[in-house]
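Running this now, will post back.
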Amino acid sequence: MINLQNGQTLTQNMQLQFQPNELAKISGKISVDNQIALAGVLLKVSGRINKATQTGLDGSFNFESLEAGYNYTVTPTLSHYFFLPTNRSFRPLSQNKVDQNFLASYYGDISGNQEVSSFDGSLVLRISAKKVVTPYFSNFPRDSLAADVSGNRTVSSFDASLIFRYAVGLITLFPAEEKTTSPAKSNQIETTPLLCQQDWSTPGMLRLVLITTEALSFFALDAELHYQTDELEPLAIQPAASLTGFYREWQGQNGRLNIAFAGVEQAQCQDTLLTILFRSLSNKAPFNAYYTWQQLNLDEIARTVVLNQEQAIPQQFDLSQNYPNPFNQSTIFQINLPQVNGESTARLLVAIYNLLGQKVKSLYDRPSVPGIYTLSWPGDTDDNRATASGVYLLRVEYAQFHAVQKMVLIR
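Update: finished.
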């Protein structure tokens, strides 16, 4: 009965889809990759009534005598498995729900054969190097969840290392199994950069040597380096002696060089990590901006790479003209950072603006040590949308220094 403002009374019959004391049930089955019934899975239903049950030999489960009209969530758990969907929610539960099935898969089982082996680790390593592994890694999100055993929402050579260690019994659980929530990708940046020593002394060759100035211990290395295809051609990746026991994959294609290393035991490095060999394709004078380090991760932790030349610390601040210019897909440029007032670091800000003064892309914003930095811009915005043809301004700020260069993008 509803009372109106003028004193009139309105009576309305409101029919519910269920009676307050009506009972309903939720039932279904769980199978491994839609192939084998999975027994012994613990399922919990939470809501008005909380219950728990296990799947039988045929993989079936059944929650009975649930009060209808209330919200319920069913969640399955079993060691070494993840489930799709992760849970099923009923808001509200208004009637019997049957065929509420779940698919279970092994963490680390990328090949889909219901076991975890070194072959799965080799698949993840090839995926990290951006290689095609057809027919594997084609069923999403199942395959990406199986590969991301570290649980950080990325697939990397560190996941391959974990799978290799699991396959030989060095670990019995993956980090993804031990986490109750999915963590965001780590944005941690190490304060001590790695050094890239370039060597043009051999005619027609460029040798890049990646060096650490501190003792490092790691299971996996992932790197991506962009290069000008009309200037350089990748030939080989040579690991340091401390990395010779690592599984490794690399691929150079369409101006992108991807490198993936993974080991069963930690590498102990104190100087050289690896050497990259390029063939020089032109007779132009050597130029640092023929290549740029896009990323380098050790055990999924990002590291900064600084160019190390004969003069390790530039005497003056300088921003080179981007190359190529005009450009169509991507352009790269070099920044020389001197030491400022005896400080070990200063904040380096690199951003792209349009001619209206609006920021288009923030490329780099972090404390940086003195050195020579090579960065690139693929002509996109902060939300990864392609920008239109036109003139853009590259602005660099470092301590009291600043510089601006015009860049021309032609689509």
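The longest strand covers residues 256-269. More later if anyone needs it.
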